[in-house]
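Tutorial sheet, problem 5. The two components below are modelled jointly, 788 residues in total.
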Amino acid sequence: MTNYEFSNSVPKKVNDAIGEVFKAASDPEVISFAGGLPAPELFPVQEIKQATSDVFDQYGKEVLQYSGAIGYKGLREQIVDIMAERKVETNIDNIAITTGSQQSIDLTARMLINPNDVIFVEDPTYLSAIDVFKSYGAKIIGIPMDDDGIRIDVLREKMEKYPNGKMIYTIPNFQNPTGRTLSLERRKELVSLANEFGTHILEDDPYGAIRFSGEFLPSLKSFDTEERVIYLSSFSKILAPGLRMGWLVADSKFMDKFLLMKQSADLHTDNLTQYIISQFMKNNDIKQHIKLISEAYKNRADLMIKQIDKKFPEGVKHSNPEGGMFIWVELPGNIDSDELFKICIKNNVAFVSGSAFYPNKVTKGTFRMNFSNMSDEQIILGIDRMAKAIKEMM
Amino acid sequence: MTNYEFSNSVPKKVNDAIGEVFKAASDPEVISFAGGLPAPELFPVQEIKQATSDVFDQYGKEVLQYSGAIGYKGLREQIVDIMAERKVETNIDNIAITTGSQQSIDLTARMLINPNDVIFVEDPTYLSAIDVFKSYGAKIIGIPMDDDGIRIDVLREKMEKYPNGKMIYTIPNFQNPTGRTLSLERRKELVSLANEFGTHILEDDPYGAIRFSGEFLPSLKSFDTEERVIYLSSFSKILAPGLRMGWLVADSKFMDKFLLMKQSADLHTDNLTQYIISQFMKNNDIKQHIKLISEAYKNRADLMIKQIDKKFPEGVKHSNPEGGMFIWVELPGNIDSDELFKICIKNNVAFVSGSAFYPNKVTKGTFRMNFSNMSDEQIILGIDRMAKAIKEMM
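Model answer (structure tokens):
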């Protein structure tokens, strides 16, 4: 038998903790607040079916042939309008279609990170971004957050310590895993800081459109006067994640090279799917669909918070997301949420322990709860089960 | 304006020679033998439309949700059967679905190559594979070919010189760009050599199913007793490349890590498209479709060779492919095919100069001609134009 000599990009041990969580949570008996899955019952199946049929009738063989790395022009034109609603003026040449935001993160990281480069991230943050950055050999510096998002004072300190930091990775809206949103003032400060230190910002915005309370906040990209911000978004949360379709907005100097890397990675994104999404948005008002999702998620978030406040023991803290999919919970005392997970899974309820999301030092007793994927009944029952387990441990 | 500090993965200069070729060739006035595009008029548009409609009716929201990195089980089961026809016994756990073969090459390279690792390739070979290997810092050693494929004697010499070579990359069937096929004996020798030196083989087989003459030859993977061969194939040439769907066959030690990398790269391949291809193969006999394509391509290849023999000047050599999409042409004397391209494009006919395909030293006067994408009339007229240009240069 051969022994593969894997490259340094490959993790030495297959430590797929999160995979184990999802495996356990996939038991149909389990009420799962673990994943980051949209509500499947809200997928517009018939409308997407109709759009697909229209695409075959209207474009035929064109959608089955190879196409360009940058993506379908018709779709990029529609994304120009989506970006305008997000207060970012751009044009089709500065938009590239990707095979989901995960690919945008991976390729951007690959383009910017050399081994030992420093990347600043929110602490905690999206675990698959951490994995990507690590795979390219980055040194990851976690910056603590409060209710207004990443702490600019601490970020400045760390940037002074590592003045050659390559990139700041941030999820400004309804952050994964905390559900927190970066305040308007801090958005401006973050861009200023990037300008001052000559670093880049990777603005990951998969959830921003799903705002169900509070005020719209302009993206970091909208404050970017020096082309330092690379903006990522996706159709996964606003339409359907199975379609694997994201986009990236960046200036032309970045884009020229990005398209070479994109071509190396998978030539171009599935052409049929690009046309389907474009046609869906011609046939339907996606804003109406997003409104529908947002209202449903608001009800679920409100219910989950109500139940947490009512059932979890005193001293438990949680975030109050104004959108997105996640609530962040902090337990008092010394409760280990990895241990709590083990008890909960025996009682058929799942979440993701905070330990998965911290790039450096883990803050114990924290965990992420998803509210988008479970029904009201499941939310009520699941919180009851969790509350019982927490009380047992306290 | 910002100055990006790109990583070492990014080419210093944007030198997209091949992009320029395709740009020139995309003028509708130009008869293009440049690309590697299937014949779009043979795409089974109505059958794929029907399969899609069936998928929505039968599976609904399931195809729009996130799914696993390894890919749709139903499709992997069908690929087990496809592999059995190619004389490779495998099972669903050793098959991963990828976003096209380009992704399989990229991720496999990323998993195996550290900077300065040696990769052996056929000389000339698929240019986007060269680009991928270079982006990971590989040292690429081209091994000359003859009509029976890669020369094993030279490969052995080079492997003795570089005994720690990481991988042999080969396209055994109807190779890109030469159209040549590796003989049965050399297939066995190549696997023995890999065993002897403890190296891996990346067997890239996008064209193998499109055989229109000669005898079927078993894949390298079928001779692999030490799990050294990673086998890649794709639906791009046998069904439709716009769907971006490939697969990889490897043993479990490789697969465990591959799935982590796949997850980092794009979470999983477009779920809807996986179901569409699976449903297409349930509704239709894909072997019949492949037969149809192969017959059409045989006619075009025969015609192109007939015209080359008749119209090109004496002393011109060409390969005689038994399948696939490409013919390789070698001009006598000192003709520079980059220069020939310039004259040809002025006369509205295009091909790809050999210079794009050589990883090390370019053999002048060589070029690749694609026969799958043009009609009989275009083939006749295009060869006339090329013959005129070649005579001008001689």
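Marking note: The longest helix of chain A spans residues 286-311. Full credit if you identified this.
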